[in-house]
Amino acid sequence: MTKEDTKIESRDLNLWYGDAQALKDVTIAIPENKVTAVIGPSGCGKSTFIRCINRMNDLIKDCRVTGELIIGGRNIYVRDVDVVALRKSIGMVFQKPNPFPMSIYDNIAYGPRVHGICGGDELDGTVEASLRAAALWDEVSGILDRSALDLSGGQQQRLCIARTLAVKPEVILFDEPCSALDPISTARIEDLIGELKREYAIVTVTHNMRAGCESI
After folding, report:
1. Residue 204 belongs to what H/E stretch?
2. Which of 46, 48, 80, 98 sits CB 3.0–4.6 Å from 205 for a disulfide?
3. How many CB atoms lie within 10 A of CB 75?
4. pLDDT tens digits for 43-68?
5. Which of 102, 120, 108, 98 is nearest to 168 (CA)?
């Protein structure tokens, strides 16, 4: 892999929760426009690693990180990094669907509103484009005012993907996104991830290599 192909680079990354070391000297390069799968036994640090990429581990008491994690040529663990801007550029989809208790439309519009898109055609266009990209528009276009909690589990997970896409990230992290879904919904999410790699660097914790992943 050339430097031009590398989106994320981890160099001697270590992480401790208190006195317990969860990651040790992790050095890898993650490419642009591919699905990179992090696989391994339960408790080996897979989710901990991908949460380093958007600094979600910062929220855990007594968590300490050393080493470098380079995105866009810059170590995101230097002191002056804007963590809010970082998390906007690195979306994350969690193990269980977590739609907000509001309408389908407002779930997608929430992030763009926070970042200054307040309404009108621009917001409507962002909502539609995000739902289309998540392969959900045809199923919900007539019910955007309904609660997102009324959707099925698979639809809720695709809604969460659309919500992530709405703020135009550069990287998308998936933490076992299909583990709570039925086989049909799982296949749809995996197919969707395979499509999204055309535009994003994707890192996923998974037990299934079906979506054309490169494993690490």
Report:
1. strand 201-205
2. 46
3. 13
4. 899 999 999 999 999 999 999 999 99
5. 108
